[in-house]
Model the fold of this input.
Amino acid sequence: MNDLILYTTEDGRSQIKLRADQQTVWLTQLEIAELFDASKQNISLHLKNIFADEELDPSATVKQSLTVQTEGSRKVQRSISLFNLDAILAVGYRVRSPRGVQFRRWASTSLKEYLLKGFVMDDERLKNPDGRPDYFDEMLARIRDIRASEKRFYQKVRDLFALSSDYDKTDQTTQTFFATVQNLLLYAVTQKTAAELITARANPADPHFGLLHWKGAQVRKQDILVAKNYLSADEIDTLNRLVVIFLETAELRTKSRQEIRMPEHIDKIIKTYQFRKEEPRYARRVAMEEIEKNDFNLNISRYVSTAVGEAEIDLDAVHAELVEVEKAIMDAKKRHNRFLKELGLKPLP
Done:
């Protein structure tokens, strides 16, 4: 079992721990009885009838789990039956209690979305806080942090640049591209590359080796080699925002079907992040007044046009080219008719 999801009944009398595993949740008979405010015998009877009526297949909805129980002065290992969400909901329909209705309503919306997607959002509340405590900015900060996580960022960068016209996963440019992007983003925040940052901030005399963040309870060797672990909270916030800008820009260029090559990506990223240089159809400086006029909408497409302008047409050059083409066609036709005449065939008109 990996996760526990806590469900509190609307009357507040019970808090149920649902075991999340295999994109569903599991409860024992006793826990189902507490959930629906029914007796264990009643739940057992409902489950027996559900399987007898072939409403559900026991092999797909029931599994065994070993647990250690204290019986007297002894600890005994027992096997208990766990029932998944389909079985729990089937029992809920038969119990017909207010708690059953409440749980089914919650499970069919919030719980299923969480199990499938890993998150649940109250869209209407986020759009219209109406004076309630508003955690929208906190949610955005957490999303930025997730997007900037190494695995998520690498996956997105890889997916985007696989669309480059010269993409080759075995090429050295491709293999070093992700590290190049990471170094540029870190440099934009700290004026140091990843290696320089680790060298400057690692401190063997410090109990945590100079790290400000690490996984788990103890600092491990692999934590020391991650440059981001040495950044302050403010630096991480800046880095996360730069990652979002970078990904949004790359996605916008991909969406607009612009042909992109790997060296071009690297060159434009260097100019944008290292020199804060404006690039047509890629990046430009925007005054706060313009952002304010756009109602503080930070959608990049509002400020950076990716449209490719039409090239000027030289009518004289086009006319001269058409004259040459027509002359070439007439010469070819004359030669062709000579061959046809020699063969005794009718010439072309």
Remarks:
- The first strand starts at residue 3 and ends at 8.
- The two ends are 85 Å apart (CA to CA).
- Residues 3-120 form one domain.
- The CA atoms of residues 87 and 282 lie 54 Å apart.
